[in-house]
Design goal:
Strand order of the largest sheet: 1-2
GO molecular function: sequence-specific DNA binding
CATH architecture of the domain at 32-90: Orthogonal Bundle
CATH topology of the domain at 32-90: Arc Repressor Mutant, subunit A
Distance between the termini: 55 Å
Largest sheet: 2 strands, antiparallel
CATH class of the domain at 32-90: Mainly Alpha
InterPro entries: DUF1153, Trp_repressor/repl_initiator, WH-like_DNA-bd_sf
Pfam families: DUF1153
Strand content: 5-15%
Radius of gyration: 14 Å
Shape: globular
Order of helices and strands: EEHHHH
Number of strands: 2
Protein name: DUF1153 domain-containing protein
Structural class: mainly alpha
Helix content: 40-55%
Oligomer: single chain
């Protein structure tokens, strides 16, 4: 069995004890960003599975958009990543 050489770790352990691997990240061609995919990218960057620069490039995200996701998670948890959450908050 051969493993493809990758920069950085192949897996990281999250604070809750679960292991996150590169396979847990969304595919690069992702167009529809649901909460679980956004959270996977945010966690991947936060715990060192993928660098922020690589994530921005791989997923075609702007720094502003990614940082908005991070701030939403920090402020409101996973609920903050829902588009409807921000719509309700503005009302």
């Amino acid at each position: 069995m051969y493993l493809k050489k990758v920069d950085g770790p192949r897996a990281v352990t999250l604070p809750d004890g679960t292991v996150m691997t590169l396979a847990d990240l969304p595919p690069p061609e992702t167009c529809r960003w649901v909460v679980s995919r956004k959270l996977a990218v945010v966690r991947g960057v936060a715990y060192g599975l993928i660098s922020e620069g690589d994530a921005l490039k791989q997923y075609g995200l702007s720094e502003e958009e990614f940082h908005e996701w991070v701030q939403s998670v920090m402020r409101d948890g996973t609920e903050g990543l829902k588009a409807t959450f921000h719509q309700k908050r503005k009302e």
